[in-house]
Sequence to fold (211 residues):
Amino acid sequence: MGWPNAWSAFRVVKEVYADDTTVENHGGMFGIGEANTAYAKYFIGNSYLKPLTNPNETVFVANVTFEPGCRNNWHVHHATSGGGQLLLCVDGEGWYQEEGKEPQSLKAGDIVAIPAGVKHWHGAKANSWFSHLAVECPGENTSNEWFEPVDDEHYPKRKLKGEKHHKKNNINNNMNLQLACILRYNRLCCRRNNTSDRQYRNGLQNSGFNK
Fold:
């Protein structure tokens, strides 16, 4: 589609989402997807899934969205080598916890690297929708094993000690964050395709993204 049109598209997406304050905006710029009925038995509350790549062609990436209070069961990503999962948080606020450790507060822009063999769970905070990209790391003999739910007694309902309260994200700022991630990735692709840094900077300026 060419550089000028590509950067213009980024600017249009940014402006559209900046004005969108409806409930349909859940899921961030990737969208909420469909109800995650296939894995509903492994969740407390409703979750939504939007696959972004074809696992038969490349690494599988999906946008997972949790309604407030929704979380998945304790589970483990198994692999004889490699494997594991990356969580790239894109919208709202949530929790991640490994067995034997304190819950970790998550917000848009946070990244969690989950090694294979580690028992864990993740989901939304009680008063916030939450979306993250789930990236399945390549490995050998990979599989998932599901365990017990995170019941209300063990699910964190209050702020952690020392945790600052995050106000509801301004949608425009959140879109800037998500677009920044895309542009960084795009820049890496440009370098592989021998696109100069000058072309990249001109694209940024023309898009209005760096204003």
